[in-house]
Amino acid sequence: MKAPMKGLLVENLSVEIASGGRLLKPVEGVSFAIGADECVALLGESGCGKSMTALALMRLLPEGARVASGSARLDGEELFALPEAAMGEIRGGRLAMIFQEPQTSLNPVMTVAEQIAEALAAHRKLNGAAAQAEAGRLLEAVGLERDRLGAYPFQLSGGQRQRALIAMMLAGEPEVLIADEPTTALDVTVQAQILNLLRDLQRQRGMGLLLITHDLDVAKDMADRVAVMYAGQIVEWASRDSLYAAPRHPYTEKLFAVLPRLERRGERLDSLPGRVPPPDAVIVGCRFAERCPAVFARCHEEAPGFHEAAPGHFARCHLADPVGRMPQGRSAVDLPPDGRRIAFRASALPTGAVLEVRDLAVHFPIRRGLFRRTVDQFKAVDGVSLSIQAGETLALVGESGCGKSTLARAVLRLLEPTRGEVRVAGEAIAGLSGEALRKKRAEMQIVFQDPFSSLNPRMHVGEILEEGMAALLPLSASQRRARIAQLLDQVGLAHDAIGRYPHEFSGGQRQRIAIARALAVQPKLLILDEPTSALDVSVQAQILNLLADLQAEHGLAYLFITHNLPVVGYLAQRVAVMRAGRIVEEGAAEALLTAPKHEYTRLLLDSAPGRGR
Amino acid sequence: MIKPVLLWSDALILLLLWSVVGLVWLARNNEALRGPWRQVMRNPVGAGTALILAVYVGIGLLDSLHYVERLPDQPGREAQYSGEVRSALDWVLTPLRENVEKTYSAPFAIQLYAKETMKGPEGGEIRDFPRLKHGGAHLADADKDFWPDVLLRGGLGMLGGLVLWLVVFPLWQRGSEGDLVAPVVSAKNKSPLTPLLERGGLASAFAWTLLAILLLAGLLVALAPYYHVLGTDKVGQDVLYLSLKSIRTGLLIGSLTTLVMLPFALSLGIAAGYFGGRIDDVIQYLYTTLNSIPGVLLIAAAVLVVQVQIEAHAELFNTAAARSDVRLLALCGILGVTGWTGLARLLRAEALKLRELEFVQAARAFGVGHGRILLRHLLPNVMHLVLITVVLDFSGLVLAEAVLSYVGVGVDPGMISFGNMINGARLELAREPVVWWQLAAAFLFMFVLVLAANLFADQVREALDPKSSGRK
Hints:
The complex is a heterodimer of chains A (613) and B (472).
Chain A: E1 8-19, E2 22-34, E3 39-43, H1 50-58, E4 65-74, E5 77-78, H2 84-90, E6 95-98, H3 112-124, H4 128-141, H5 158-170, E7 176-180, H6 188-205, E8 208-213, H7 216-222, E9 225-230, E10 233-239, H8 240-245, H9 250-257, H10 297-301, E11 307-310, E12 313-315, H11 329-333, E13 353-368, E14 373-389, E15 393-397, H12 404-411, E16 419-424, E17 427-428, H13 434-443, E18 444-447, H14 461-472, H15 477-491, H16 507-519, E19 525-529, H17 537-554, E20 557-562, H18 565-571, E21 574-579, E22 582-588, H19 589-594, H20 599-607
Parallel strand pairs in A: 3-8, 3-9, 6-7, 7-8, 15-20, 15-21, 18-19, 19-20
Antiparallel strand pairs in A: 1-2, 1-4, 4-5, 9-10, 10-12, 11-12, 13-14, 13-16, 16-17, 21-22
Helix pairs in contact in A: 3-4, 3-5, 4-5, 5-6, 6-20, 14-16, 15-16, 16-17
Chain B: E1 2-5, H1 8-27, H2 31-42, H3 44-62, E2 66-70, E3 81-87, H4 88-92, H5 94-98, E4 116-119, E5 125-128, H6 142-175, H7 194-200, H8 205-223, H9 239-275, H10 277-292, H11 295-312, H12 320-339, H13 341-356, H14 358-365, H15 370-407, H16 418-428, H17 437-464, H18 466-471
Antiparallel strand pairs in B: 1-2, 2-3, 4-5
Helix pairs in contact in B: 2-3, 2-17, 3-8, 3-9, 3-17, 6-8, 9-10, 9-12, 9-13, 9-15, 9-17, 11-12, 13-15, 14-15, 15-16, 15-17, 16-17
């Protein structure tokens, strides 16, 4: 990293937050460089400080946070030394940023043209007709029609909004563009388009691109160089090829090891125990030492330096230290061949169809006019048939809005279907009511996507787990208490969790609570509505392992709703691909994922990141 | 001889008091319920504001013990009782109540605020400000003696307050085993007394608030019988007396109206948001209609109806106090019935949001009944809104009473209330020099009450929120 250079050079950046008398350090000593015409990926799990780094570079840190030390030079110009007025010129001009949520980063009451014109007037002093013409050119550059200029954000789809936002950011002709998780909120096919667009623009315009992401596959597709962040520090910094060929930091190795893949079917995923240390923790030695599989005494005593393990490949690990490195150092990190396979389906477990859905349809009436007459039907689910055997996992794959969640709610009878039949354990649930329905409800349960909204913040864990039992099972209070303890054991939580509130737990732990809640009533069928998509990959691995164990132990049937194809390949026996309320293809997982028949399945598979450029 | 009188509002207050005491009694051994309150009391702001509120409530309760006096016996006739209902507070404040001047006088004034024609020392008629009948009447030479007298009496009063504090507080603290009192003295509120405080282990926000209240009380007790500390109003009544008497009316309007309003707002608001569809339509229709009728019109109509009813049943309301009391209750009722729409709309929006949250969906998947979902999942998650809205509405209600009094449909004009005080002061603001003390007194008393209630409610909300208690 030699200055001066074109592009953005960040050296030793630290951010501090003073909060309630404590000093948090979400970013500590971060250095990296983005050359002109280069894409750098800042890779890390949630809470590792990657967004804080981006905000610090833009000088948009939230109240109370400040840059404690370090420098950021854009073409040799020190950003942190500039007066705010000069920074305002650079921000959105030479240094621009796109955010994660296209919903909220556009002003809903201004048209696209107005918002682009605003940026043009601010950074390029273009007004009137010239600005209009330039805005049109920018829209075309990001792959939108020129006539979308007059559109309001709500008239655009998510992908179109993200394109419009990119056009806005291009208006200042940035030298470096920061993209903070630009595709996380988007469907996989749209994600592929946006990533392609970003890459093309970066190359055409010769700008630097800092791509902040948690997705190893996205980084692999996009980046020239990758910086891996952990607990506020960059732990590994290498060219993409070098990193993906041979990661040098145990954390990065673990990240690769916990990824579910089709090839890892039936294996237990490697897991990463423990949690990221909180930003106010006082750490002597290596920040990853607590969770590191290759930890040794020195790690607890001395913070590792940033060693060049291979030319241009840096890792913050004692094992990467060329001097004083143990000769067998690398092998200690090599993952033990985890041959433990999950024993599927013991013979004593129940068999037979747990769920049969025949020609199920859910239509929502579209009402218009003064008397709210029904003018049309929105066919959220339009004639779906599927069945799941005991101990089997059926993955339901589809993009947002395809009707997967509506289907799940109709199966649970949270919604009344328009037509069709749902049979759970051989019995139709449509006509049931009262006691019979309650019995059926105990046989099917659901785990939701977002572990932060699926648990009532004002009930403690004991009450949450007890609620279903109290409603559905004829158990005495002491039996319920015993069962709660047993459930906590099953999902791997400590018993003192009972009296605590959900907010005291991490995302993964909360998802465990949600699973325990569903298991409380001894269901035969568990509907998993994107149970891991809000979690980090290391936590995702833990949850997937837990689900596999529970299935093997109890012969549960899973209806696994997801858009994440690698998870599908790892976990599911059969896959159903859903689009616009219908199932377009269904079959055994391996066959379907390797040789798709329907063109939509093929499109989904091709759009999935991580297949190289 | 006296005979106790139980007005309707007194009965309601007693009922309220009993239920609060009962709840506290039931909750005293429940750690889950006690915990948040203990946290409130450990917080300096919480403890201080609680004490201030307690003083207000105490004055209000004292003012709710009504009685009538027995008139002197006349031979051959049954015992006769006075038609004038008094309260324990009136009795305590007898000197204030009876020291009535002719008309306005400024705070601490010794002369009337209006000139009068008097006999001069030489026998001729002159126009001058006459001396007050009571305010400073004990001073022989007003010009020379005024300041020494005020300072002496005030100093003695404050000394009394200080002594009382030094006696009461250690006793009280020993009694409570220091449970409620957190040792919080930061460098900034150090005073010459601090070493004493720290040595005695008394240091806490509670102690400081108590000290401030006792000093103020001592000052007033020493000065009020001899001077009109806050001046007098148009008919010469002491403004301090009026302000203290207004507290009960204000508290009553604030709390009773809230009690009437809450069931409507909670049940209708949450039900509309949660059930949606037809139920939502009906409830929305209801509150839109109610909102679109001018509130004053409804209230005026209701109060007039009550007025007619009172007159039709004069035998039931044989004293002026009873009549104005019923009118006050009717006002609370009608304010409550018309005032729930704002909170209901807020709760409906929140329930709409919560209903879609997954924990509610999960509860439905368990077959948990609607009633239980409303009670266990929705209600606790909107309580913070309810608490904040209710406390903020409280000041609005006291002010609404003032506005309604202006229109002539508020509380009985004879009843002492902040509304009537403000209303009376309103006309005199145009006077030159201005008569400001009546308005200032009402403002000061309401300001302290509402600010204390706001800060206290804030602490309660924080304590009841599991997220914030986890932080500590």
